Amino acid sequence: MNKLELVTALKEKTGIPKAEAAEVVKIFFDSMAGALAAGERVEIRGLCSFFVKHYKSYTGRNPKTGEKVTIAPKKLPFFKCGKELKERVNS
Questions:
Q1: Domain, as residue range, for 19
Q2: Which is it for strands 42-44 and 48-55: parallel, antiparallel or unpaired?
Q3: What's 11's DSSP letter?
Q4: Strands 68-71, 74-81: parallel, antiparallel or unpaired by DSSP?
Q5: Count of domains observed in the chain
Q6: Which of 20, 45, 73, 74 has the highest CB neighbour count under 10 A?
């Protein structure tokens, strides 16, 4: 399911206009992205949680030359599946 399909499903289930459904979906995802950017955890009970992992700087190697390269510290978003979603997918 992509964003457009989500907007269409919301429109059909609630009966609101497509423009309003698109705005609701946009607000939802913008709010999640903003919370993650601020370092907060986003949890949707029964479905999933999103959080940011912090990685320290480390020394890596360039695969072509074998030269040592310093990798800068970084933050990456992660997704963790909830128990109810796991059960639903596996049933």
A1: 3-90
A2: antiparallel
A3: H
A4: unpaired
A5: 1
A6: 20
Query: Is residue 46 over pLDDT 90?
Result: no
Pair of tokens at residue 85 = 């979603």
Q: Residue 37: which CATH number?
A: 4.10.520.10
* pLDDT tops 90 at residue 91: no
Mean pLDDT of the residues in the chain: 95
- The residue whose two tokens read 């320290």 is 56
pTM here is: 0.76
As given in the structure block, the two tokens for residue 70 are 């310093």
Counting every residue written for the chain, the total comes to 91
HSE-CB for 88 with a 13 A CA cutoff: 8
